[in-house]
Amino acid sequence: MKDVMEKIENSIWMNCSSSSVRRASRQLGQLYGDAMGLTDLRGTQFTLLTQIRYLDEPTQKMLAQAMVMDLSALGHTLKPLIRDGLVELAPDEKDRRAKRVRLTPEGLARQTELVGQWQEAQRRFDAVLGAEKSAELRRTLAFVASEEFAKAYAAAGKKGD
């Protein structure tokens, strides 16, 4: 483990936050996907089902913001879930221009079914990294994914002009 960490610390990846996060994301996506077993859903789709459930029928705009996606990417990601009968779009009762995203009974059952496998993947992650470091990593990444961080990042670019 020590040799691996020394190689990582001396690698080019340690100089680019974006590359490091992307590499880690791909690795975790593969590991969690493996831990979730044989399912026809990708990890991003499970995450989307979970976010829809958590937000309780969000508008597409709300869901895109929560997922840090643009609306067209969200639409692309929702298509197979709609096609497979796991998600449906419905007009918002207050604003007919807006569409609400909701889980179908099949979608709710599928999301519920996969939560246990996700919990096992999360348990394994925490066991390797440590519960405290794992929680700190999630807090840090949540901040990096926030609008507050994006605004501060943009402002830091203006200061360098």
TrEMBL record:
The keyword Repressor does not apply. InterPro entries: HTH_MarR-typ (IPR000835), MarR/SlyA-like (IPR039422), Tscrpt_reg_MarR-type_CS (IPR023187), WH-like_DNA-bd_sf (IPR036388), WH_DNA-bd_sf (IPR036390). Transmembrane segments: none annotated. The keyword Transcription applies. SMART domains: HTH_MARR. GO terms for biological process: response to stress. Keywords: DNA-binding, Transcription, Transcription regulation. Residues 14-146 form the HTH marR-type domain. GO terms for molecular function: DNA binding; DNA-binding transcription factor activity. PANTHER family: TRANSCRIPTIONAL REGULATOR, MARR FAMILY, TRANSCRIPTIONAL REPRESSOR PROTEIN-RELATED. This is Winged helix-turn-helix transcriptional regulator.
